[in-house]
Amino acid sequence: MKKFSIILITLFVLVLLSIGGAQEKPKITIWAWDPNFNIPIMQEAAQRYKKINPNVDFDIVSMAKADVEQKLNTVLASGVKTNLPEIVLIEDYNAQKYLTSYPGAFADLTNHFNYKEFAPYKVQLMTVKGRVYGVPFDSGVTGWFYRRDYFKQAGLDPAKLQNITWEKFIEIGRTLKQKTGKYMISGDPFDGGLMRILLHSAGSWYFDKDGNITISNNEVLKEAVKLYKTLRDSGISKEVSGWNEWVASFNSGEVASVITGVWIIGSIKAAKDQSGKWGVLPIPRLNVPGAVNASNLGGSSWYVLQNSRYRDVAIDFLKQIYAKDVDFYQKILIERGAVGTWLPAQRGSAYTAADPFFGNQKVFTYFSTWMKKVPAINFGLYTYEADAAIMGVMPDVYNGKLTIDEALKKAEEQLKNTIGK
Amino acid sequence: MKITYKRYLDLWGWLFVIFALFLLTLFLLYPIFYSLYLSTFTTRGIVQTFVGFGNYLRLIKDSNFILALKNTLIILIIQVPIMLFLALILAVILNNQKIKFNGFFRTAIFLPAVTSLVAYTVLFKMMFTTDGLINRFLISLGLISKPIPWLLDPFWAKVTLIFALTWRWTGYNMIFYLAGLQNIPTEIYEAAEIDGANKSVQFFKITIPLLKPIIIFTSIMSTIGTLQLFDEPMNLAAGVVTGSSVGPGNSLLTPSVYIYNICFKYAPNFGYASAVSYILVLIVAILSFIQLRTVGERE
Fold it and tell me: Is A384's CB within 8 Å of B242's CB?
């Protein structure tokens, strides 16, 4: 009996403790994936918010990107409402997919933020039926990073390479290869990254505004596929497979330029001995009407879970830091190379500073100008499916077994199969 | 009959198995039946629509699924026989007690089977890059003049996968054969030798027939393993920025990778993924049955 009462008392105390615990500080749980990028940025944001509202705890969980997606999918699909994180990071290409696959799961933030202050293309991709569901975070605005020394050696004047077309790019690539023996760019001929850059720069995608497939009848896509083939045949591209080999190709100095999202700066700067040798130019444009010399690749945004416990605190946190703190955006730009999409931040000092690594060029001033030029498009729900379908027919395009028209028709069939339409 | 019936009612018996039975139902039977139920819906996240057999009809026409099966079949037909034959030869050689450091070789060949699937695949991906170890080695030997595009060509990507799989699984199968060889009495070989049978005759007329049950076992296990291939193609195909296709031109797409993509990479369609899984199980069952029937003993 004595034992029993001891157990009873212990239980009672435990219950009391847990009730007491529940009334304690709200804890905001955040899921994100990059320990060199969005995790430390969120930690910085949390530090800053604690100064405004000390009565909050943060639990910033770092997982692999695929794991975040897998976990989010399974938790939301199972319908449980406990143990949800307050805030989750979602890649922009996936935003529409999650928002429409799990209606009601994400908090409607339309009335909480002034979305006119964010880059328009970022707001567009998180809007469903006129309601906005996220807080735009980093931009994947693209640039053409080039080696000043190699270009000079090949007699190329960067001033004359502003706003050129891809034809010109290949032409100067040949010159450069002839004179310096270096490859112009590097890439995986079966990766859809460049494809996304090309399409987005012309305001086009695999789908139209209403989400209908536009593949076989898409002139921009035809040009883009043609460019993939030309690029491969021209021999100016060093072919690599996988991220590490790609980064190694420009860190080792084998390649004279890189065309991709601004987030690559961290990797380019990893080769410290190349300081001062790099520069940035606007990306080439496709020879189609409406194409611009600016585009976007990747980028992600924060979303708040509707059924999470401390939803309102989480929203306030995002509001106070991500839509108010100009200084925060300067810090993450300098420390992490994160180009935010909250436009008022771009008047800050870090955006106008000259970078010695890039030959004292004010790179971020350029990037923020280009960011505003990126066309706003609807990514739709099936970007990855479309990528897979297109890249699936690329071998036949490369070896000439199929013409581009035939290949795109085949890709469209395949895509319809994948998404069941 | 009476005894079994009595046993059936025995309360203690039930008490002993009830816990295991409960877990089995919860974690095995329930998911099996629930996924069958789920396969009659097409889902996008929590948005469900009942389609009956629609998913299965869609599957027959799904060029991605057919491609995944084709890829797997090619690997199955080429890789499994090579691997099993290699394992058999190695087992026979290492079964010979006269060989020095025989234990060392056995361990060395078995060791790959202990490594993590992801780790070894990542390692292979590094070795088989265009500037990688393998290409440099082959060029320095003068065997090739230009680097082979191992992971940048649909054909070579499959070859790389086959190399990787063979490296990882040969030792594993060899152990089964070694165990089987220990059970063959040495008297049979002695008798055969006296009758004038040379080594190769002994191998084909004694070793293979007596190892038949184990050969069948390993071939069925390898078939199932190949059809469920996931880690290797997934990691070999990890792309630059987007990881658009599974290997060049989807040449490494397997049914399991496809199921994963349908659930987690594409718009989440758990219903369709369940249907694909069911068809995969059916194919495994049919192939195993055929193997048992054609190579197997009649009894």
Answer: yes
Token pair of B52, please?
A: 């009956």
Contact B47 A196 (CB under 8 A): no
Q: How far apart are CA A418 and CA B68, in angstroms?
A: 12
The angle subtended at Cα A365 by Cα A359 and Cα A369, nearest 5°, is 135
Q: Residue A221 contacts by C-beta under 8 Å, 6 or more apart in sequence?
A: A199, A204, A206, A214, A215, A390, A408
CA atoms of A324 and B259, how far apart (whole Å): 43
> Check: CATH 3.40.50.2300 for B60-296?
no
For residue B299, pLDDT over 50 is answered with no
Interface of B with A in 96-155 (CB under 8 A): 125-126, 129-131, 149, 151-154
Contact B177, B211 (CB under 8 A): yes
Q: Do A190 and B244 touch (CB under 8 A)?
A: yes
Among A241, A243, A390, A398, the strongest candidate for a mutation testing the B interface, having the largest count of B CBs within 10 A, is A241
User: What is the rounded average pLDDT of the residues A365-377?
Assistant: 92
Q: How far is A19 from chain B (nearest CA, A)?
A: 32
Q: Which are the contacts of B222, defined by CB distance < 8 A and separation ≥ 6?
A: B80, B83, B84, B169, B173
Beta bridge partners of A342: A118
Q: What is the ipTM of this complex?
A: 0.84
Sequential DSSP letters for B185-229: -HHHHHHHHHTT--HHHHIIIIIHHHHHHHHHHHHHHHHHHHHT-
Give the mutation candidate from A98, A418, A419, A421 for the B interface (greatest B CB count, under 10 A): A418
Measured in angstroms, the CA of B239 and the nearest CA of chain A are apart by 5
Residue A11, pLDDT > 80, answer no
Tens of pLDDT, residues B264-273: 888 899 999 9
- Note whether B61 contacts A417, CB cutoff 8 Å: yes
The DSSP 8-state label assigned to residue A155 in this structure reads: T
Place of tokens 């079964």: B95
Check CB contact under 8 Å for B46 and A385. no
Which residues does residue A279 pair with via DSSP β-bridges, in sequence order? A146
- Domain boundary assignment for chain B: 1-39, 60-296
Chain segment A312-344, per-residue pLDDT in tens: 999 999 999 999 999 999 999 988 889 999 999
Distance set, CA A245 to CA A42, A188, A336, B131, B161 (Å): 29, 10, 22, 9, 19
Please state, in angstroms and rounded to a whole number, the distance separating the CA atoms of residues A284 and A282. Answer: 7
